[in-house]
What we know:
alpha+beta, Outer membrane efflux proteins (OEP), four-stranded antiparallel β-sheet, two-stranded parallel ribbon
Amino acid sequence: MRSLTALLLASAALACAEDHPMTLRQAVETALKQNSDITLSRLDEEKARQAVRLARDPFMPRISVGSGLAYTSGFPMSIEGSAPSVLQANAVASLFNRQQSLAVSQAKEDARGASLSVESKQAEVAFRTASLYLDAGRAVRIGALARKDAGSLQQVLEGVREQAREGRALPLAEKQAAYNVARANALASGLEDDCASAETSLAVALGLSPEDRVIPVEQDPPALALPASQEAAIDAALQSNLEISQLESQIASKSLEMRGQKAARLPHADLVAQYGMLAKFNNYDEYFQKFQRNNGQVGVSLQLPLFAGPGVSAQAARSAADVARLKIERDNARNRIRTDIQASFREVRKAGTAAEVARLDLEVAREQLSVNLAQMQEGRATLRQVEESRIVENDKWIAFYDAQYGIERARWNVLRLTGQLTASIEALP
């Protein structure tokens, strides 16, 4: 029964699985809308926005209404600091509180930092999606070549077997050909598994089910434009890099926190107001010369800290240490970004050189295949020689596609570091 239930569940999961053909732009746009990491960052951003409202709360009047109705025997006394009354109303709000004002400014800066965190997560998700898309496209193309390679090797094996039966080839040659076919089939199967894994990982990155698969429809990834020069890329990165912006936001927030802690020594003033409706049965007319039923008062509560204690200076010193640490991290990030961009440009040049070598090698292999085909038509070459040339050509195609893959990864990494990858992909048609 359990086996039947498991089988039914598996069948239902397979029935719900879908293939989603997408372009690179569609994949990135879907990820930016549905990725769970971005959703979590947006929730943190919302919490930061609500923290601003919470910090402003002391400056908004807080009004409470209630009743202190009580029976009095003898002299009318107070209950919880107020005279017994039919209706009570109290209001309080901060008029001047420098420490709380700086807390509001810090909350606003934290909210800005949370927005930067969302942008950073979006850039990270866009790069991860683009990389997975590139991986899936590579696996599809190379997998097709591997299957074609296996087919050519199968034809070679059949030719060797025929020669072995006629005594024109040794049994060792047949075994070697059979081994080559088995190895090619294993490679093709492995590439198919890699393709399935890449398409599933891409689906998960887009916020889809792990049973779904995203199929790249652009096997040739679009060539995104790089900055004009290495120095231009470095300048763009230092101006727009989200990691540096986040660190600067944290520095500003900690500086405001330090100023707020020092402001604990400053006076602060609160607006206070109170209204009470009294009743005659509380014996007021018996003990006081004049009774007035409606009573109210408005005033300012002023507090001046005379001795704040050593905790204020200690907290300010801790915040100052945090600011110094964040500045060092910011400077380190700038140096790292400069170094990473220089390394990425070198990688682009190396990948371009490797791609040019692979292209020339592929042209040689294709020309050799054309020569062998012409010789076979003239009876000067065998089918085995042609198929072996075709296998070599397939291998060169695989090397060429790998070289192109290396170029795209290196170029996209430059755009990621400069913060231009998402905008470049969204600008695609």
